[in-house]
Amino acid sequence: MLKLRDQLERFGELTGAVIAWLTILMVLGTFIVVVLRYAFDLGWISMQESITWMHAAVFMLGAAYTLKQDEHVRVDIFYRRMQHKRRALVDLIGTLVFLLPVSIFLAMSSWDYVVTSWVIQESSREAGGLPYPFVPILKSLIPATAALLIIQAVANLITAALVITGRIPGEPEHDVPQGEVL
To answer: In sequence order, what DSSP letters do the residues of the chain get, joined into one string?
Structure first.
């Protein structure tokens, strides 16, 4: 189980690194759009759309990496004071009850939307916008996001189960401060 979790975690790190490069491309593209527009009075709708779509890709594909890093926003008034086994139980239940069902729903409900986009060879609605196959590729990121979240959820479930059963210790930075026991 630990080996599978490590492989899933490495995959999460790889996707995070790829997304980081996409962010750099997005910043460079934005810089180019601004320079072309204000210095040379030039602009292309497709270039501007590509920046918007890269932004969407960063947020969608970065959701699983953010989950892996435990950086999603949460109200942790009670969670942060719990012992690591209790936190692992909360993580396990939250993943099973919320994360996995929502991710599966997202994948299933977006499937027809994505397939239709590919079938009709959808392109941008804007004149001069991005041509086919860019719109279907962007829409394909919706079920890809769900798949990445499911992969990370499985890694999180394995980690939680290993912590609960005592096969691996909880993360040291999450240990209960001295003198506090819940």
So the answer is: -HHHHHHHHHHHHHHHHHHHHHHHHHHHHHHHHHHHHHHH----HHHHHHHHHHHHHHHHHHHHHHHHTT-S----TTGGGS-HHHHHHHHHHHIIIIIHHHHHHHHHHHHHHHHHHHHTT---SSTT---TTHHHHHHHHHHHHHHHHHHHHHHHHHHHHHHHTTSSPPPGGGSPPTT---
Residue-wise pLDDT tens digits, 93-130? 999 999 999 999 999 999 999 999 999 999 888 888 88
Q: What is the pTM of this model?
A: 0.80
pLDDT digits (tens, 9 = 90+) for 77-98: 787 888 888 888 988 999 999 9
